[in-house]
Every structure is written in C-alpha cells, then in structure tokens.
Amino acid sequence: MLILAPIFAACVTTAGAATSDFDALFTGRTLRYDYNHAGTATEEHIAPDRFRLEGEWPGSRTQLVDETNMGKYMFLVVDPGTNRTIYSRGFASIYGEWETTGEAKESWRVLHESQRFPEPRMPVQVVLKKRAPDGTFRELHSTTVDPASRFVDRSAVAPAGDVFTVHEGAHPSRAVDLLLVGEGYTAEQGDKFRADVQRLVDEFFRWEPYRSRKSAFNVRALHVPSAEAGISNPRQGVWRDSPLGLSFNAFDSDRYVLTYANAALREAAALAPYDALVLVFNDRKYGGGGIFNLWCTTAADSSQADYLFVHEFGHSFAGLADEYYTSQVSYEDFNPPGYEPWEPNVTALLDPENIKWKDLVEAGTKLPTPWDQAAYDEASYAYQAKRQKLRAEGASEEVMEALFDEVKSITKPMLEGQDHFGRVGAFEGAGYQAKGLFRPEVDCIMFTRNPTVYCKVCTRAIERVIDLYAR
Ligand SMILES: [Zn+2]
To answer: Least buried of 213, 268, 295, 380, by fewest C-beta within 10 Å?
Structure first.
C-alpha cells in the first residue's frame, strides 16, 4: 500500500495566486457524492446514495469552474450564501449513453454514479444539470450537504490493493493525475500488471500532445487482486469473478467493455489521488470503452492495446467523439439531427462560416471538404461485414488481427492519398453517421486505427483539458 501523503504535505502551499480563494472555500480534501441515476428513454431521475470523504484533493486549486462547455451533463457546487458556483465540471455517463439505446425504450435501468469535488468549508448545494439537444442546460437534481455533518461518511478507505508510482511530473494540484487500475489480474500476476502498465504508459508518452506535456502528468497504478485471470465475455460464455465488474458486451456490443460496479470501483480508486482513471484489463481479446470524465477501459494483451489506450483515453479525458461511422453500435439516437454535438471534434456544419474549429481551417478550404467517401465506404463496410461474420463464428484474436491488418493496408493509402490529407476542413461521415456529421481531418486516431496521431482539432482539445488540471 502506498499513500502519497509526504508529497502532498510538502507542496500544499505552493499552488498559484488563487490558492487563497481555494483555501478560504475548501479544506483540501476530496468529497464524493454517490447517487443512482435511473429512468427510461423518456424520463430521468436522480436518487441520492451518500457523501463520502476521500483523501487529499488532487485537482486544480485555481481552475475550479469549468468553462470548456463539454459534456452531456454538468455538476456544480454552489455556495447558497452567495449563490456563486464554487466548483463545476462537465461530464458524460453510462446512463447518458444507455438512454439512447433501444433497450431504454422498453425498460427502466438504474446506474450508480459519483461526482468528486473539493470538500467545502461550508454547507453547499450540489446540482446536476443535463444538456438539451440545443446545447442549453436544465437542472435535473439538486440537494444540500453540510460537510461537517453526520451525513458524510468519514471512515478510512479500505485498502483494496497496492498503489505504485509510474511517473511523477508535478505536484498533484498542477498535474493530470492518471490512475491505471488493473482488473482481472490475480494476486500472483502483480509483476505482469506492472509490466503491462509500463508498456502502455511508455506508448502513451510517445503520442502527442502527451509527449510534449509529460511533465504535466503523474501516473500511478493500482492492483486490485482478482480471484481469476481475465474478465467476463458473455458472448463466448466466459464468466469471471473480477472485483471491479468489467465485462465485454456492454449494451450487447461485443467489443464494448464497461463496468456497472461504480461503488466498488470508486472505493478502490480512493486509495490514490486521481483526476482520470484508466481501467487496464488482463485480456487478449480486443475491446475497450471511454466516457467523458468517467474512465476508459483497455485490453492489456490485445495487439491493438496502444491504439485502444490512446483512442479510449481521447473519449474519457478530452470528451472526443468517435469520428468513425461504419462500425455497428447500439446507440439509436446518439446525435439528434439538426443540432450541433457538444464534442469538440464533430460538427453538424449548420453554420459553415462559423465552424467551431474555424481558426484551424486554411483559407480557401471548401466546407464541406471533398474526399472519396464512396471508395472508403465500400472498403470499410466490406471489412465490417467480414468482421461481424468472423466474430459470430468465434474466430481467434489472431484471425481478427489479420483482418485489421488487411483493412489497414487498403484504407491507409486510400486516406493518405486524398487531396486534403493532413489539413483541417469538414469531412462528411463522423459520430456513427455517414451523412450529416463531419470530422475535422480525413484521418485521425478517433476515425481509424491507421494514424499515429490525433488530428489537429483533437490534439488541441486534449491540450485544453490538460491545462484545466495543470494550471
Ligand atoms: Zn480527430
């Protein structure tokens, strides 16, 4: 067990000019609000669970209010004395995705969620807002809490596993604190977890903008021992007793790996300071997932593990949308037509003159920007059909990977040969839709597995979020 108290103790007084504001408003510890998010496609409710004290506050002490305008939801902490928002963050959630699936039209579901914020010195109001398709927010829930009251659980966090440091860049209040949590690693597989984490983190820092901003990151890892190796894979009849509940086939999508065991995960993660969680699961099968300001998941032993990590982290850390549209997904109403998505890297191009990444578009570039979508679609849909057939037949990962390489050998030269390759415009086909949504460049790691870069718009979006933690 490693708790990072000495680092915190040494540095608490060294944050920026607004530290005095922070110190006046907050105690320096972390408070967690756990609640249930329930509903159907047409109604939505929040039912409080509990408030829970965690360790030191690892987030920024100067950027308390989130002005990035991202996320389907917004969490706010309000001082009722002044009605001033003293802390806020945008986020997305499993619930927010689930309510767009067909299942939500037929049945109810309850999902457990948490919001973490610096512990206030005074009673506060906590508010959850939801974004309407037109971009405006409406209040979904509000409650008050007196942090000094008996309604806050201040018991010690149980040591669910071992924490170790992988990389130290700056004091937690001026860094992005990444916590990689292992799932499906037995007690005997601690060395494998360490090796997997090191490999993934080395790869992560080969990518921009992480490489240039390495000193703005701290990376720690947590091994929560699992009774069995691997995670559940329901479509193949594989069931594993793993402590954090990660499983393939979320929303009945074979490669989508999520957990619904939020309470267990948050309690385990509370052992270390973190701003962003990455759940690394001990499995060979291709799969992952990422939800903005929640966490991402990645298969440690897939030959595509490096891609999975940076792609899914793009979702969970920077709110990036999927730019692809030829893969099958379970969402039915993810982006309602006629509205601008909130994600920074997809646009409905309702007002081409004022496209949200306008400053990155070279003068004279046509919007929409021409590309050979018909040729790409033919190759990509043929690949998707093969992929689905092989998956249904229970093909091995080696066979699936050979297919990945095959489609890459066709689409990579095809996309690199486009006139506007490497330049920013508005290319039709993005966000699970072949028509009506546009992506910033012909190719990006949020579009295909081909490139080794995020496009310029995605890169800038990531940098903006790094700054939200590191300043
Ligand atoms: Zn992109």
So the answer is: 213
